[in-house]
Specification:
The complex is a heterotrimer of chains A (295), B (318) and C (359).
Chain A lengths: L19 E16 L5 E17 L3 E5 L6 H8 L7 E6 L2 E2 L5 H8 L2 E4 L13 H11 L5 H14 L16 H13 L5 E5 L7 H18 L2 E6 L2 H7 L2 E6 L2 E7 H6 L4 H9 L5 H14 L1
Parallel strand pairs in A: 3-8, 3-9, 6-7, 7-8
Antiparallel strand pairs in A: 1-2, 1-4, 4-5, 9-10
Chain B lengths: L1 H28 L5 H6 L5 H11 L5 H14 L11 H36 L4 H15 L2 H15 L14 H35 L2 H8 L4 H12 L1 H19 L1 H6 L5 H10 L3 H29 L11
Helix pairs in contact in B: 1-14, 5-6, 5-8, 5-11, 6-8, 7-8, 8-10, 8-11, 9-10, 11-13, 11-14, 13-14
Chain C lengths: L19 E12 L2 E13 L4 E5 L6 H8 L8 E9 L2 E2 L5 H7 L4 E4 L13 H12 L5 H14 L5 H4 L9 H13 L5 E5 L7 H18 L2 E6 L2 H7 L2 E6 L2 E7 H6 L4 H8 L49 E2 L8 E2 L5 H7 L1 E2 L2 E2 L7
Parallel strand pairs in C: 3-8, 3-9, 6-7, 7-8
Antiparallel strand pairs in C: 1-2, 1-4, 4-5, 9-10, 10-12, 11-12, 13-14
Chain lengths: 295, 318, 359
């Protein structure tokens, strides 16, 4: 799939080749902690994202893995300028987007979309599926009327729903189907970059695989570029070309997916991998024996 | 805590200032009868009215008038336009009656609100719950003036169980009690009904919480689960309401009850002031009432922190 | 857990009979949309000192089964049939007051979300003390407080004598789950029911909690029912496994049976859809198509039929939970395919999985 060249195993920013769609350099997002008797002064800060650099090539999937509090979700939002970064640079197709105003960002929003974790909370319960998926097309004046409907039905079909679902409400769908609606909405404007923030962690096991496969198919078909954020390193490894491991606001290791999982270099990555249960009783028993022998 | 108090007290002063300015402006901008004319009497000569204007300061600029008015209120020298009585003194005189009425009624409505709400929640869906629901709805929908009139008619005129009306000071507890029992009931019924509904729904929400399931799984008795875990965690909405309701009433809001039972408290004084459009009195009772509402709001917030250790007073998120 | 799952678990040897015996358990709820049969005929036995995993997705009935064991699903809207026997004593017919003596003392239960499973307004210590004193009011407050500290130490909470007086929100997620376990252990029960105990936790914390559960299982002979959707977790700690789907047990066997010789296509699908770090990644994850069934409207016959690529005519009849392998009477499943067919059909791209449906 994508190239494994850029940023390989190095946590430093590598000047990405011309193929880089997204290039993030020294991105920092701190949240101030304020206190004071009468007027709030900044007394401390939460270093949610503390200087991360990575780049993503066209058509590639970068997996961003980390535990709760590692800053991975904040990083996504800061990249998309949904949160204003404290400092650092975010280049999309070579153009600096950090610090751009709302109006300047507007055309770029078409190119960068996001899929959220909770398919229950991220869909407006009062809107019909057709509206949810088609709203962006309308707002950006891409299509309207019969053309709009045709495109939305096409999208629903593409993500494995049926065009008859057009007039239904989100609550009539199962969790997996709702995530499909979320994907259709994200794809409506034919974005180049899709950031998936824990897209499968709220879903049942058997549904997770469906969504992962769907994302895979869509990438091949539409030549999408993904940043796939999740805490489940197994899922991240399956879908990603390269993986960046985040811990306490920093990227501790980057590299090709198999290499990071099979030959981790960083101590934290090793600890993370060792904690993942192995769905093979003999292997997990052997690993435990090793662990008790060592400790 | 210090940070919380400093901020809230400053906030309270700001709110009271804003209210006083607002009331002052309403009275001076909205055209009404000329106060000087009212003070001077019906057949006053223009000269007399002029004199009154000068004497009371109506010829001065609005900020100056506001300042004088505030000074008078806070030094306790403010006089009403009509009877020339000292407004602050009248309010202070009314406090024992109003406090007796409101505290007594609050005890009754809290007791019944909690009892009925608790029983409804514990037996939710059962006959007791349905019966109490009907009772509560009747209580909520009965107008206070109607209930008070019925009580007065039946208990004082028909069977003469209770003395007619008025307020007797606490120095004679028996008399005090017998004069207040009907006002207490008529004031408490509405709140009791309402509070029982609020507590019931709050408890039903809490009953679905995971920690209630944990409490049951530990082997606690049903009653312990309901009291220590469900009831205890359902108090916040009730406390919120109580702070507001009690603040309003004690600040002179029990207008209807005090009027009907002829209790010479702050509420009755407010009613008279409103009827006569007596500006100094209205200004003073408004500030008095607002003070209590603001005070009880602060107390409610302190109550929150006491009830739920996760709520930290003065945390910057708040 | 024992190093080889096949060996019998270390049991205190109370002499004959299983610790817990569940027979024909059915739990239905009356809802506005009709009757929901959440659990539809579950049988199993729990031996002293073993870890039994109940695996399933949402709506499979696994949590309802667990909660019904100690009567937590009793309500005017629920209808419970069948039998739950603890040391031969029937629990389903006990009064609420009698059940309270069983809960916590003989069977303890911990839940998925340690964030919401402790009452936020009481200190952790107070909630443990409450559990102790609910069962033995003679224990003084000071003794109970000391016991609470010891329990917190036993589950690996550092600084227990100070932390005992902290509120749940002052604990991290993992520490809270440890505290929940400490509370469960307070009365030295013989059974611990753990309902998705690690689902809400980070993976490094999950490993610690699983180690703790296993350690307690071994050192105290604490029989454990582990409810989970995660086969990885099962592989780490369980001795035996029940796989549930649509309110029924569709397969039951030892850990080895379920992972190396699975008989039910749903089990294949679950195993196949795992992303395994110990294996090369497949080009495509073998997925189970469709969605878990609505309990309001279960398909007739085998509940898995609409999602099963191997469905055939016979599947319109409900298959019983039977031993279908002559050599292994304790490995049971609900699938009409022959053992020979199963062996052949479950291989997808060199590993166990469910074929993609045709078309």
């Amino acid at each position: 799939m994508g190239s494994d060249v850029s940023g390989a195993t190095s946590t430093e920013a590598t000047t990405a080749p011309s193929g880089a769609l997204l290039e993030v350099t020294d991105l920092v997002k701190h949240f101030p902690i304020k206190s004071g008797l009468l007027f709030d002064r900044e007394v401390d800060q939460v270093r949610a994202v503390d200087g991360i650099s990575f780049s993503v090539d066209k058509g590639e999937t970068l997996g961003l893995v980390g535990e709760s509090g590692s800053g991975k979700s904040t990083a996504c939002r800061a990249v998309l300028q949904l949160l204003k970064p404290t400092s650092g640079s975010v280049k999309f197709e070579g153009q600096e987007i950090a610090g751009l105003g709302r109006r300047e960002l507007r055309p770029l929003r078409r190119e960068m979309q996001m899929i959220f974790q909770d398919p229950y909370a991220s869909l407006n319960p009062r809107k019909r599926v057709g509206q949810i998926v088609g709203d962006q097309l309308k707002i950006q004046k891409v299509a309207s009327g019969g053309e709009l409907r045709k495109r939305v039905e096409g999208l629903l079909d593409r993500v494995g729903l049926s065009p008859e679902h057009y007039n239904r409400f989100p609550h009539e769908f199962s969790g997996g189907q709702r995530q499909r609606i979320g994907i259709a909405r994200a794809l409506a404007l034919e974005p180049k970059l899709v950031i998936c923030d824990e897209p499968v962690s709220a879903l049942d096991v058997s549904i997770q695989a469906q969504i992962v496969n769907l994302l895979d198919d869509l990438q091949d078909e539409l030549r999408l570029t993904y940043v796939f954020v999740a805490h489940d390193i197994g899922v991240v490894r399956h879908i990603s070309d390269r993986i960046a491991v985040m811990n306490q606001g920093k990227i501790v290791e980057t590299g090709p997916a198999d290499q990071v999982c099979e030959h981790p270099r960083d101590a934290y990555t090793k600890k993370l991998l060792a904690a993942v249960p192995i769905a093979d009783p003999r292997e997990s028993a052997a690993r435990r024996a090793e662990r008790t022998a060592a400790g | 805590m210090l940070r919380f108090l400093v901020r809230r007290v400053l906030g309270a002063i700001a709110v009271l200032f804003a209210i006083s300015v607002l009331v002052f402006l309403i009275f001076n901008v909205v055209p009404a009868t000329n106060p000087a004319q009212r003070i001077a009497g019906k057949n006053a000569t223009p000269q007399l009215i002029k004199n009154v204007e000068k004497e009371w300061g109506f010829d001065k600029s609005l900020p100056e008038q506001y300042w004088t008015q505030m000074k008078l209120i806070f030094t306790g020298e403010v006089k009403s336009y009509n009877a020339h009585i000292n407004v602050d003194e009248r309010i202070v005189e009314g406090i024992p009656a109003t406090a007796s009425l409101c505290i007594g009624a609050a005890i009754i409505w809290l007791a019944f609100g909690f009892l009925f709400g608790y029983l409804s929640a514990v037996r939710s869906g059962g006959w007791l719950d349905r019966g109490l629901t009907v009772l509560a709805l009747i209580g909520i929908s009965m107008p206070v003036f109607w209930l008070a009139s019925i009580l007065l008619y039946y208990f004082t005129y028909k069977i003469e169980l209770f003395p007619p009306s008025g307020y007797e000071p606490l120095s004679d507890p028996g008399k005090w009690f017998s004069h207040l029992i009907l006002p207490w009931i008529s004031l408490a019924v509405l709140f009791a009904g309402f509070y029982s509904r609020v507590l019931r729904s709050s408890m039903l929400d809490v009953m679905n919480e995971d920690y209630v399931r944990t409490a049951r799984a530990k082997g606690l008795s049903q009653r312990r689960v309901m009291v220590k875990h469900v009831l205890r965690n359902s108090l916040i909405p009730v406390i919120t309401l109580f702070g507001l309701d009690f603040g309003v009433l004690i600040g002179g809001g029990a207008i209807v009850t005090e009027s009907l039972f002829n209790i010479e408290g702050v509420g009755l004084f407010t009613a008279e002031a409103l009827k006569q459009q007596d500006f100094p009195s209205i200004m003073a009772v408004t500030l008095f009432g607002a003070f209590f509402i603001v005070l009880f709001n602060i107390l409610v917030d302190i109550g929150y922190a006491y009830l739920d250790p996760r709520i930290r007073l003065g945390a910057s998120a708040a | 857990m024992s190093a080889t799952p096949e060996t019998a678990p270390v049991s205190p040897g109370t002499g004959g009979g299983p610790l817990l015996e569940v027979d024909g358990l059915r739990v239905g709820f009356a809802t506005e949309d009709g009757r929901v049969q959440a659990v539809d005929g579950v049988d199993f036995q729990l031996e002293p000192g073993e870890v039994l995993a109940i695996v399933g997705e949402s709506g499979s009935g696994k949590s309802v089964t667990a909660q019904t064991l100690i009567g937590l699903t009793r309500s005017p809207n629920s209808h419970i049939e069948g039998s739950v026997k603890l040391n031969g004593e029937e629990l389903t017919t006990l009064s609420e007051a009698q059940l309270q003596k069983v809960r916590g003392r003989q069977i303890a239960m911990i839940f998925q979300d340690p964030m919401t499973s402790m009452n936020p307004v009481y200190t952790v210590g107070r909630q443990i003390i409450e559990a102790i004193r609910a069962h033995d009011s003679k224990v003084g407050k000071r003794d109970a407080h000391r016991q609470a500290i010891e329990l917190l130490e036993a589950v690996g909470i550092p600084d227990a004598d100070r932390r005992v007086d902290a509120y749940p929100h002052e604990f991290s997620g993992g520490m809270r789950q440890r505290a929940m376990i400490a509370m469960g252990l307070a009365l030295e029960p013989s059974i611990l029911i753990a309902d998705e105990p690690t689902t809400a936790l980070d993976v490094t914390i999950q490993a610690q909690i699983l180690d703790l559960i296993q350690d307690l299982n071994r050192s105290r002979g604490l029989a454990t029912i582990l409810i989970t959707h995660d086969l990885g977790v099962v592989a780490e700690v369980a001795d035996r496994v029940l796989v549930m789907y649509g309110g029924k047990v569709v397969e039951r066997g030892t850990l080895t049976d379920i992972f190396y010789d699975p008989q039910h296509p749903y089990t294949w699908g679950l195993l196949g859809s795992l992303t395994r770090l110990d294996q090369p990644r497949p080009h495509r994850l073998p997925q189970i198509s469709g969605a878990p069934p609505s309990l309001l409207n279960l398909p007739s016959g085998c509940a898995f039929r609409p999602r099963c690529p191997h469905e055939f005519g016979k599947c319109k009849e409900v298959p019983g939970l039977e031993a279908r392998l002559p050599e292994d009477p304790n490995h049971r499943d609900r699938c009409w395919l022959t053992a020979e067919q199963k062996r052949r059909l479950r291989e997808v791209e060199g590993r166990i999985g469910l074929e993609e449906p045709r078309g």
